Amino acid sequence: MDIISDIVADRHVLVLHGAFDVRSTWEVRNAIYECIDGLDDDVVIDMTDVSTIDVTALRLLAVATRHAWLAGHHLTVRNPGPAVRRMVHLARLAHAIEVERVAATA
Fold first, then answer.
1. 30 inside domain
2. Which helix (H) or strand (E) segment is 71 a member of?
3. Residue 85 DSSP SS3
4. What is the extent of the structural domain holding 74?
5. CATH number at residue 24
6. Strand order in the sheet with 43-53
7. CB of 28 within 8 A of CB of 20?
8. What is the largest CA-CA distance in the chain?
9. Which among 1, 43, 68, 85 is most buried, taking Cβ atoms within 10 Å?
10. C-alpha span between 15 and 86 (Å, rounded)
11. Among the residues of 1-106, which ranges form H helices?
């Protein structure tokens, strides 16, 4: 399985591709904190193309969410897949990571 192969920054949106685990945590952490500290805006982590995640990566998201909040911003996770959502709940970090709510379609 590939680690995060690409981080695309589009102003306040970081788009991740691949497996988000302990091997890619430092790279993703640096991108997130650079975004939080460099903008006067909220930050969105688009995880549409993240295939798997581990507890280390989830803890990074929880800590970065708190860091953003202390800086007066929000950090929101967008489009986590079923495997990512399952890990968030198994790790009991659902209260610490803000997941973007999407409107239900009819």
1. yes
2. none
3. helix
4. 6-99
5. 3.30.750.24
6. 6-10, 13-20, 43-53, 75-78, 98-99
7. yes
8. 40
9. 43
10. 20
11. 25-38, 55-70, 82-90
Number of domains in the chain: 1
Contacts of 95 (CB under 8 A, 6+ apart): none
Is residue 104 a part of any domain in this protein?
no
Please write the tens of the pLDDT for every residue from 64-89: 999 999 989 999 999 998 888 899 99
In a domain, 106, yes or no: no
SS3 content of the chain, % helix, strand, coil (to 5): 35, 30, 35
pLDDT tens per residue, range 20-60 = 999 999 999 998 988 888 777 889 999 999 988 999 999 99
Residues 6 or more apart in contact with residue 51 via CB below 8 angstroms: 1, 18, 19, 81, 83
pTM of the model: 0.84
